[in-house]
Amino acid sequence: MAVTDEAIEKIKAMIVAGDLRPGDRLPREADLAERLGLSRNSLREAVKALSLIRVLDVRQGDGTYVTSLAPQMLLDALNFIVDFHRDDTVLEFFEVRRILEPAATALAAQRMSDDDVRELGKVLADLSDDAGIDELVANDLEFHHRIAAGSGNTLLCSLIDSLSGPTTRARIWRGLTQAGAVEKTREQHAAILGAIATRQPELARSWATVHVAGVEDWLRVALQDPVG
Q: Which of 9, 72, 99, 183 has a CA positioned 20 to 30 A from the CA of residue 44?
């Protein structure tokens, strides 16, 4: 194992063991290096790497702190990687959405507050009949985000949000090229909302699966026959 990797593992072990907690300041560099049996240079490189993935926060002139370790913050690194996806991998993002979003929707049917359900309904109601594709896609993203947040699981919500960006272009493409896509999306959103509002998690899960799988199936065919 490279010395920097070893240093990263040792700092990670301290956090996992509870020796360093969210918000804690790390000991002085010389003291921590001696405690962990590392050179100051390898420790410095490890701190730099862990700050890039938001595990540590280096504050100039103040010291280095463990971050809140909140899922949204730690998943920033995943969002960075996701930005490099190629168009030919977008189906993989839909496959992951098809696994995660139905589960989040079922949880939302159990956990969303009545106020949040009403706000979700307003998202659909605020979409005008003559909305353009950009407005429709923005509404779609907001609808799915609110459901993911309504699952009550911040990690699940962050994962789903991170998958939204790479699939936006496909949503626009479908809306522009597939006859009846907009109407079908609105109908399925209404069905998902109805299942959540009536607290039927398995029905909500089923409608979410149908909804995401429909876009995935369309895209699979479109990629095989892009001019068809």
A: 72
- At 107 the pLDDT is 98
Tell me which of 43, 68, 93 is where a domain ends. Answer: 68
Structural domain that includes position 198: 74-224
3-state secondary structure 143-192: HHHHHHHHCCCHHHHHHHHHHHHHHHHHHHHHHHHCCCHHHHHHHHHHHH
Same domain, 137 and 189: yes
Please name every residue paired with 127 in a beta bridge, in sequence order, or none if there are none: none
φ, ψ of residue 65 to 5 degrees: the values are -120, 150
DSSP letter assigned to residue 113: -
Instruction: Please compute the mean of the pLDDT values over residues 172-185 and round it to a whole number.
Output: 70
Predicted confidence (pLDDT) per residue in 134-156, tens digit: 788 888 889 999 999 999 998 89
pTM: 0.65
Number of structural domains found in the chain? 2
Core vs surface per residue 50-87: b (16+ CB within 10 A) or e? beebbbbbeeeeeebbbbeeeeeebbeeeeeebeeeee
